[in-house]
């Protein structure tokens, strides 16, 4: 099991992304490890997505390093040879949702206050093509298109209805259910499951691998724009105001 632990909201900072990638690599290289449950140790939050402070007021070099780390975590989770189950035990906007979408199966705590979705548009930013591809591959084109354009965050019941999460279970049953799903997936021979997973996911993975440097350049150019920086600053202010 892998538990995201970066209070208060598990925002995906460069440090957390790097630790996460190293832990995944270790598990991937351990032949005895055939599956991983990804969850959070922060109450009520799975992950608040990318750490916005990593994308605000920093240098081009920093944005480059940060975006490479974001790409890396997606590539590792999405193309993992292990069975990956997301036990979504709290809200999971944007990058947090991407982590869950990249797993093989998603189980979410049945709490209507928890929400999940790719809400980038609400921040005035655009989800890159590989976020979009991952989303489309889970929920289909129409639902993804509407949800992405509106930057929707879906409540747990709504997310289940849309197919964004596979199952809802009472919060106290989440880990038990995740273990049961893992056992069910691990009952199959690894090679058949892994080859099938590769067949299904390879086109999307290959697309980023082929355009990785171009994608970094696009991100750095986009995020460095004063208008985008302003949107991000305003969003952070809104988060702080909402709190007080
Ligand atoms: C080409 C560009 C593509 C770039 C792609 C980006 C994808 C992303 O992931 S962008 C990030 C999107 N994330 C969000 O919109 C989530 C924002 N956060 C929330 O909605 C809420 O914080 C929460 C529902 C996750 C939790 O709510 P809660 O009431 O428990 O906590 P808060 O008081 O709101 O937050 C506590 C603390 O944490 C700061 N914070 C929250 N989220 C982030 C974040 N993603 N990055 C950095 N910091 C974050 C928040 O401002 C509070 O800080 P202070 O205690 O200093 O006020």
TrEMBL record:
One Gene Ontology cellular component annotation held by this UniProt entry: mitochondrial matrix
Q: Which reaction(s) does its UniProt entry say it catalyses?
A: (3Z)-dodecenoyl-CoA = (2E)-dodecenoyl-CoA; (2E)-tetradecenoyl-CoA = (3Z)-tetradecenoyl-CoA; (3Z)-decenoyl-CoA = (2E)-decenoyl-CoA; (3Z)-hexenoyl-CoA = (2E)-hexenoyl-CoA
Coiled coil where?
none
Major location (coarse)? mitochondrion
Q: Which Pfam families match?
A: ECH_1 (PF00378)
- Which GO annotations describe the biological process of this protein? fatty acid beta-oxidation
InterPro entries for this protein: ClpP/crotonase-like_dom_sf, Enoyl-CoA_hyd/isom_CS, Enoyl-CoA_hydra/iso
Q: Where in the cell is it found?
A: Mitochondrion matrix
Enzyme Commission identifier(s): 5.3.3.8
Q: In terms of domain of life, where is this protein from?
A: Eukaryota
Alphabetically sorted, this entry's keywords are:
Acetylation, Fatty acid metabolism, Isomerase, Lipid metabolism, Mitochondrion, Transit peptide
Q: Quick one: which pathway?
A: Lipid metabolism; fatty acid beta-oxidation
The molecular function terms of the Gene Ontology recorded here are: delta(3)-delta(2)-enoyl-CoA isomerase activity
Summary of the function given for this chain in its UniProt record: Key enzyme of fatty acid beta-oxidation. Able to isomerize both 3-cis (3Z) and 3-trans (3E) double bonds into the 2-trans (2E) form in a range of enoyl-CoA species, with a preference for (3Z)-enoyl-CoAs over (3E)-enoyl-CoAs. The catalytic efficiency of this enzyme is not affected by the fatty acyl chain length.
Assembly and partners? Homotrimer.
- What family is this protein classified in? Belongs to the enoyl-CoA hydratase/isomerase family.
Question: What's the protein here called?
Answer: Enoyl-CoA delta isomerase 1, mitochondrial
Instruction: Record the organism.
Output: Zosterops lateralis melanops
Q: Give the lineage.
A: Eukaryota, Metazoa, Chordata, Craniata, Vertebrata
């Amino acid at each position: 099991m892998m538990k995201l632990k970066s209070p208060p909201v598990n925002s995906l900072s460069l440090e957390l992304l790097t630790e996460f990638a190293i832990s995944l690599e270790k598990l991937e290289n351990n032949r005895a490890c055939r599956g991983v449950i990804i969850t959070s140790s922060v109450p009520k939050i799975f992950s608040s997505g990318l750490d916005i402070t990593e994308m605000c007021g920093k240098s081009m070099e920093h944005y480059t390093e940060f975006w490479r780390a974001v790409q890396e975590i997606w590539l590792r989770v999405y193309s993992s040879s292990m069975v990956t189950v997301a036990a979504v035990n709290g809200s999971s906007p944007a990058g947090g949702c991407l982590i869950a979408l990249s797993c093989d199966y998603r189980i979410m705590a049945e709490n209507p206050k928890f929400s999940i979705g790719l809400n980038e548009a609400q921040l005035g930013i655009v989800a890159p093509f590989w976020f979009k591809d991952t989303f489309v591959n889970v929920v289909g084109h129409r639902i993804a298109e509407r949800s992405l354009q509106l930057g929707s965050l879906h409540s747990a019941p709504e997310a289940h209805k849309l197919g964004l999460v596979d199952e809802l279970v009472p919060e106290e049953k989440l880990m038990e259910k995740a273990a049961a799903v893992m056992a069910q997936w691990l009952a199959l021979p690894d090679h058949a499951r892994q080859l099938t997973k590769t067949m299904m996911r390879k086109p999307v993975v290959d697309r980023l691998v082929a355009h990785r440097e171009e994608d970094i350049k696009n991100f750095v150019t986009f995020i460095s724009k004063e208008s985008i920086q302003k949107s991000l600053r305003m969003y952070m202010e809104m988060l702080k105001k909402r709190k007080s």
